[in-house]
Amino acid sequence: MIAKNKMAAYKIENTPKNNQIINVLSLAIPIAVAMLNAIQTKFPLGAWTKILPHINGVLNATCSIILVLGFIAIKNKNIDLHRKLMGVAFVLGSLFLVSYVCYHISNEPTRFGGTGWLRPTYYILLFSHILLSIGVVRLVLKAIYFALTDQIESHKKLVKWAFPIWLYVSITGVLVYLLIAPYYV
Q1: pLDDT of res. 9
Q2: pTM
């Protein structure tokens, strides 16, 4: 009985309006992030923003670990722990996004200065990270939506794609950070 009440606290309604919100966010977030590169004028948010790439590296690394722990929890049929861990991963991803935007609206882009085999490795990781991060927004939002609306079969089908892509995006985010970190001013 207690478990049922706990589960009910996580539920939301499956409505067309909620689906529309996911559709709008799935487009708006990648478009807004892409527009950051087009903005020539930077907003002076302060010197504190210089630390944000390092925080983003920690957020991505922590998110990667939490995603793996959430995967282990569900494989062990610990649904409550899985839900909590995936909620934490979603919050970490959201904090990353806010931090990323704050950094990029207030700082000039950092150029990668590596040479040799590091250069193509960096750009392959970066481009695959960027491309997959665009699509993973929708996958994650839909996966969470399916879970919260108790559409578990749809959730299971979707996370077969969403989980590995989200994990890849998180891990490559860490790798890209480690490769470019020496070039931050």
Answers
A1: 52
A2: 0.88
